[in-house]
Design goal:
Layout (H helix, E strand, L loop, with lengths): L2 E6 L7 H8 L5 E4 L8 E5 L2 E5 L12 E4 L4 E2 L1 H11 L6 H4 E4 L3 E2 L2 H13 L12 H9 L14 H18 L8 H15 L3 E3 L1 H10 L4 E4 L23 H8 L6 E9 L2 E3 L12 H9 L12 E3 L1 E2 H11 L3 E5 L9 E10 L2 E3 L11 E9 L16 H14 L3 E5 L7 E3 L1
Parallel strand pairs: 1-10, 1-11, 2-5, 2-10, 5-7, 6-8, 7-9, 11-15, 14-16, 15-19
Antiparallel strand pairs: 3-4, 12-13, 16-17, 16-18, 19-20
């Protein structure tokens, strides 16, 4: 069997959790391959809203095995709280949730380092979620990190102490005013590590390749979005991992030739959290309406998301980088009621029209060029089939397909798993 990938094509928050939840019944294994508790994958069903941060979005399906891959970074404190939040659902966590021994641990001092680093930047802040993600990945590439497998070693606490002491010296280097009680944070951390050690740790690359040999189907679930990729995103306003298709290979230990379908998720408009360039951003009533109707607030951070028109230049770029085979459009219902819709199809880049994403998309260099389409007035939330969609929406979808060159196979018309139209 092959591995299918599910990725966000914008700046995150596209609705990946819901789609994984919808697709899970088709797969034996759901595997997260990068990111950490900065993710907030929201699922809604039976009138209940669930937000998953590190645990894969297939955890509510009884027949799916969920794997946290080596490319993920785990905060034991946050992770155990997430587990506790699932207790009322009687999920067999020990047997259905497996953790790679090669996944890296987020220490309390990683979070402190994150806060100190961001504070020291002043107005040049990149909009970090302050979850310790960046410093953890820095330790990983600097070959200093602690991993899940280290918990099983006899000298784990000494390894921890060595790294934490190094972090404290680095915090002082940033020379910012910080109040914290590390002893208290460490007590909570080691309690969480003890609870974490009761779960199932695996050599994930061996497990997944054995599963493929046995003919099992695997869906790899990404976090954040392609435009936040450390290599291909709007650097330096990006996350610290590879959020694109290549990250699934390194984050799970699967070969590129094992990948079959790549499902790319995008919103019918565009959003972004935190700092960084955003060519189609709307700082007016229209943007405020999108934010209000779309409930555009971070599921983990609570931060308001910036909203703007759909950017097809950026979407095509993300689709090409990932090798997307199918597009899934989310939140079509949010655009109901607009008389007209603007869609960015080109950029004016330093006085020249271009249709690709250039090195720098700061507003001093880039101005979006729009085409106008007619909006739709219908309430989409109760629709159940593609032929029920208003003609203006199907025209909008066809316009996107023509410019990106990839078919739109799913249209989401509401937050619940049942409000999903498969074309």
């Amino acid at each position: 069997m092959a591995v299918d990938l599910l990725l966000g094509l914008q700046w995150g928050d596209e609705g990946k959790g819901k789609i994984v939840d919808v697709l899970t019944s088709k797969y034996d294994i759901i595997a997260r391959f990068q990111g950490g508790p900065n993710a907030g994958h929201t699922l809604e069903f039976d009138g209940i809203k669930h937000v998953l941060r590190t645990i894969p979005s297939g955890i509510f399906h009884k027949n799916a095995i969920n794997i946290i891959g080596n490319g993920v970074v785990i905060d034991p404190v946050v992770f155990i709280k997430e587990i506790e939040g699932l207790e009322k659902f009687n999920i067999d966590i020990v047997n259905r949730l497996l953790i790679s021994r090669k996944a890296h641990l987020i220490l309390p001092t990683h979070r402190l380092l994150d806060a100190a680093s961001e504070a020291s930047k002043g107005k040049a802040k990149i909009g970090s979620t302050l979850k310790g993600i960046g410093p953890t990945y820095m330790d990983k590439t600097g070959r200093n990190g602690l991993r899940i497998g280290d918990i099983e070693l006899g000298d784990f606490e000494q390894r921890y102490r060595n790294l934490a002491d190094k972090h404290e010296a680095m915090i002082k280097f940033h020379d910012v005013e910080m109040q914290y009680n590390l002893a208290e944070m460490e007590e909570e951390f080691f309690h969480a590590v003890k609870e974490l050690s009761k779960l199932t740790f695996i050599d994930s690359e061996e497990y997944l390749n054995n599963a493929l040999r046995e003919g099992k189907s695997i869906l790899a679930e990404g976090a954040q979005g392609s435009l936040l990729d450390i290599d291909f995103g709007t650097y330096p306003f990006v996350t610290s991992s590879n959020t694109t298709a290549a990250g699934a290979c390194t984050g799970l230990g699967i070969a590129p030739n094992r990948v079959k379908e790549v499902f790319g998720i995008f919103k019918a408009y565009t959003t972004r959290v935190g700092s960084g360039p955003f060519p189609t951003e709307l700082e007016d009533e229209v943007g405020a309406t999108m934010a209000s109707v779309g409930r555009e607030f971070g599921s983990v951070t609570g931060r308001a998301r910036r909203c703007g028109w759909l950017d097809l230049v950026a979407l095509k770029y993300a689709a090409e980088v990932n090798g997307v085979t199918e597009l899934y459009m989310m939140k079509a219902d949010v655009l109901s009621g607009f008389e007209t819709l603007q869609v960015c199809t080109k950029y004016n880049y330093k006085g020249k029209e271009i249709n690709y994403l250039p090195y720098n998309i700061e507003p001093t260099n880039v101005e979006p060029i729009y085409e106008e389409l007619k909006g739709w007035q219908a309430d989409l939330t109760g629709l159940t089939s593609y032929d029920q969609l208003p003609s203006e929406l199907t025209t909008y979808i066809q316009f996107i397909e023509k410019h990106v060159g990839i078919p739109v196979k799913i249209v989401s018309v509401g937050p619940d798993r049942t409000q999903t139209i498969i074309k």
